[in-house]
């Protein structure tokens, strides 16, 4: 009998699992390389379309120190007061405060490292000791052995740390919605603390992203005008300022300031926005309990940028406190009453 040969149907070849894995890994490698390139090599263009109107209205001064070339203004006459702005802010945030305090004081408004038009030298650390030393170098350069200090947000933490390390150099201290307690950091900065993700976030940030974040610091949204956004975004969009912001986020260790609160000797005023979305007003009450010679004022209907959000209330408060006149704090809430309302 003749044999019959049955041909089996030809099966279409399928890509091997090994080939699929290689392809997937290749795509992932390319994507990772692109991410790292953006995070650590690529630099976004700065916003060069805006010309600061504020700079045209003030008399900018500069002083060289071993740490930085500081940009500052000096206004008025009388006992000295130094104003320190918060993170991703600059002296512009005190535009409504300076003329009020300058009636009785010589007001120095200085851009700290990472801020405004100050430029740092070498590899600046941006941690609390470095920021405190930078403040000290500025005070030395302008001839201030002792002064009153006003600090907002991170700027408040830097002034607090300086007052802890150098109590004899601080006459009076004002903290405006300032971190410095061993508490969770503001959730708005958490993203920037993550490796790679933080670099990507700060580099891909545009003006609209910056404005969205800035608005969370105000309760009165009408205060966030186009000028308010542009005056800060203009310099914040520069690559070195973006990088400095990330370094700041990762370098602020407030367990250090918390542990040394007892070293502050200066009479201290704590001012806090009741509607602060960054740091709760309950922090103010704790400061009031733990700092010597501290009084607390909670500002109803004001956000994190309390001095910008409600200058009509905050500026007279600062002016009265910083004069040191008898009864200067008679209308300021006590720490106990602030705690009850927080």
Automatic annotation (TrEMBL):
PANTHER family: ALPHA/BETA-HYDROLASES SUPERFAMILY PROTEIN, LIPASE-RELATED. GO terms for molecular function: hydrolase activity. This is Alpha/beta fold hydrolase. Residues 80-311 form the AB hydrolase-1 domain. The chain crosses the membrane at residues 20-42. Keywords: Hydrolase, Membrane, Transmembrane, Transmembrane helix. The keyword Hydrolase applies.
């Amino acid at each position: 009998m003749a044999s019959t040969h049955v041909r089996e149907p030809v099966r279409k070849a399928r890509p091997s699992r090994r080939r699929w894995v290689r392809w997937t890994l290749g795509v992932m490698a390319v994507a990772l390389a692109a991410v790292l390139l953006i995070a650590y090599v690529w630099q976004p263009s700065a916003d060069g379309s805006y010309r600061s109107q504020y700079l045209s209205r003030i008399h900018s001064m500069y002083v060289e120190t071993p740490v930085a070339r500081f940009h500052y203004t000096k206004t008025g006459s009388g006992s000295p007061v130094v104003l320190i702005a918060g993170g991703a802010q600059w002296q512009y945030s005190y535009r409504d405060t300076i003329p009020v305090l300058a009636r009785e004081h010589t007001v120095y408004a200085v851009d700290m490292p990472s801020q405004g038009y100050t430029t740092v030298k070498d590899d600046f650390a941006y941690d609390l000791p470095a920021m405190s030393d930078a403040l000290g170098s500025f005070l030395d350069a302008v001839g201030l052995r002792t002064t009153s200090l006003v600090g907002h947000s991170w700027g408040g933490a830097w002034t607090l740390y300086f007052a802890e390390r150098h109590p004899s150099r601080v006459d009076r201290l004002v903290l405006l919605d300032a971190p410095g307690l061993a508490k969770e950091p503001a959730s708005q900065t958490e993203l920037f603390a993550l490796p790679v993700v933080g670099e990507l976030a700060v580099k891909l940030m545009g003006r609209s992203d910056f404005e969205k974040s800035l608005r969370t610091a105000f309760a009165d949204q009408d205060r966030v005008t186009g000028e308010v956004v542009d005056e800060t975004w203009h310099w914040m969009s520069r690559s070195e300022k973006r990088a400095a912001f990330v370094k700041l986020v990762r370098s602020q260790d407030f367990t250090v300031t918390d542990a040394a609160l007892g070293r502050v000797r200066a009479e201290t005023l704590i001012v806090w926005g009741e509607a602060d979305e960054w740091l709760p007003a309950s922090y103010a009450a704790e400061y009031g309990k733990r700092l010597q010679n501290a009084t607390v004022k909670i500002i109803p209907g004001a956000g994190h940028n309390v001095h910008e959000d409600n200058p009509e209330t905050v500026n007279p408060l600062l002016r009265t406190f910083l004069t040191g006149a008898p009864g200067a704090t008679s209308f300021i809430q006590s720490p106990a009453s602030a705690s009850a309302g927080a």
